[in-house]
Design a protein that fits this description.
By secondary structure, this protein is an alpha/beta fold. It is built from 15 helices and 13 strands. It folds into two domains: 155 residues, Aspartate Aminotransferase, domain 1 (Alpha-Beta Complex); 250 residues, Type I PLP-dependent aspartate aminotransferase-like (Major domain) (Aspartate Aminotransferase, domain 2), CATH 3.40.640. Helix 4 packs across helix 12. GO terms for molecular function: pyridoxal phosphate binding.
């Protein structure tokens, strides 16, 4: 079936079966991303994908140093605490603090670092702490496809604000979206899926606006959740800046899954910057710790220790390989006549749907699938006229995809 038909059937099925469960689960019962995953899996049963550019999955073997370190941590534990129940591991927190100071100049106290089993659990925990059911959060489109479902499952209203034409923050639009019920704004830089990195100038405008808003609500300042999963996947020597450097009510989220290209190994953290008022940090410290003791988002000890060593040893995926793939795809697809947004970071690139050839992103995705190339439709990320490609595809897949795009251009292009 086509992608559009498949999505419609899954929507009807979810609508018919939602009354049995909680209203919050019903709100998120039809998730476009999960529906697309089902469609993608169905497609791959009938053919072998020679150009899988859909997800940010590793298509090559993991870093040898990472697997060696993991084997050493698991196979030769240093003390009896290796497999003990531990909410916090001091040496891991201290390694994170050192890295933030050395690489970013960001001051964070070790007691204000909370390790989690990945960034998604860190986000869910942070969202739950900041907002009550019925309150609102501002998201900036295009969004990471899990954000909306996370909020809806918690009963928090997602208010989606589009970015500018070049995917930068529209601070005026964000201001218009803020109401008395707004508790936080969630930003993601470098952004998945656009690859946009918000400049310090843009972040300062956002900070100035929020400081002004907070003057009228001193007891309930608006927080910013800064999802920085890709803050080390940056191209062209660009300096990455975080709003944690300038806005005191920011909570930073990070994961090592991107830096080391191992998304199945779940480890991340929450960090509270030192510029956050002390009394606010103290209260958040208590709340987060209590939630983690209650079973929320506690990381695996051996994974945490592995990443501590990876951090100390400076392990990371090869950025030159990712940048080379980005440059090749951008150069070749642009030459073919496609409109491609060149990312400054992340694993991803956006290609605009040519409306003279396709009615929708779903049709574009189906046409590429017919050529054995898999990409993600933009509507999942609330940007309907684009598709997303992943740079984690290997070089052979990238070359195959470039040829497939060229075939489409010749096959589908309207007559002159």
């Amino acid at each position: 079936s086509t992608l559009r038909t498949f999505l419609w059937h899954t929507f009807i099925h979810a609508s018919m079966n939602s009354s049995m469960f909680s209203e919050r689960s019903a709100l998120a019962s039809w998730d476009p991303f999960l529906a697309f995953v089902d469609h993608w899996e169905e497609k791959t049963k009938s053919f072998r994908s020679d150009g899988d550019l859909c997800f940010g999955q590793p298509q090559e073997k993991p870093l040898a140093a990472l697997t060696e370190t993991m084997g050493r941590v698991i196979g030769a534990p240093q003390d009896s605490d290796t497999f003990a129940y531990r909410v916090k591991i001091a040496e891991v927190q201290e390694a994170i603090v050192r890295n933030l100071q050395q690489s970013r100049g960001l001051t964070v106290d070790a007691e204000d670092v909370f390790t989690t089993n990945g960034a998604l659990s860190a986000l869910t925990l942070t969202m739950t702490i900041l907002a009550n059911p019925g309150e609102a959060a501002v998201l900036v489109s295009p969004i990471y496809f899990v954000y909306r479902q996370q909020l809806e499952l918690m009963g928090i209203e997602p208010v989606v604000v589009p970015t500018t034409q070049d995917f930068d923050l529209d601070v005026a639009a964000i201001r218009r979206a803020i109401t008395d019920s707004t508790r936080f704004i969630l930003i993601n830089s470098p952004n998945n899926p656009s690859g946009k990195i918000y400049s310090m100038e843009t972040l300062q405008k956002l900070t100035d606006m929020l400081n002004e808003v907070n003057e009228g609500r001193p007891d309930r300042p608006i927080f910013v959740i800064s999802d920085e999963a890709y803050n080390r996947i940056v191209f062209d020597g660009i300096d990455f800046h975080s709003i944690t450097e300038i806005y005191p009510y920011t909570i930073m989220i990070y994961t090592w899954a991107k830096t080391l290209l191992c998304p199945g190994e779940r480890f991340g953290y929450i960090a509270l910057p030192h510029i956050m008022p002390r009394e606010v940090r103290t209260r958040l410290r208590d709340i987060i710790t209590r939630c983690q003791i209650a079973g929320w988002s506690k990381p695996n000890n051996t994974t945490a220790l592995t990443y501590m060593h990876a951090e100390r040893d400076g392990m990371r995926t090869d950025l030159t390989v990712l940048q080379r793939r980005r440059d090749k795809l951008h150069l070749c697809l642009t030459a073919q006549g496609w409109t491609v947004f060149k990312p400054s970071g992340t694993f991803y690139m956006l290609v605009e749907v040519d409306k003279t050839m396709f009615l929708s992103a779903e049709d574009f995705v189906d046409a590429l699938a017919a050529e054995r190339v898999l990409v993600m439709p933009g509507f999942i990320m609330e940007i309907k006229d684009h598709v997303r490609m992943s740079l984690t595809a290997n070089d052979a897949m990238v070359d195959f995809a470039i040829k497939a795009f060229a075939k489409l251009r010749k096959k589908e292009a309207p007559a002159a």
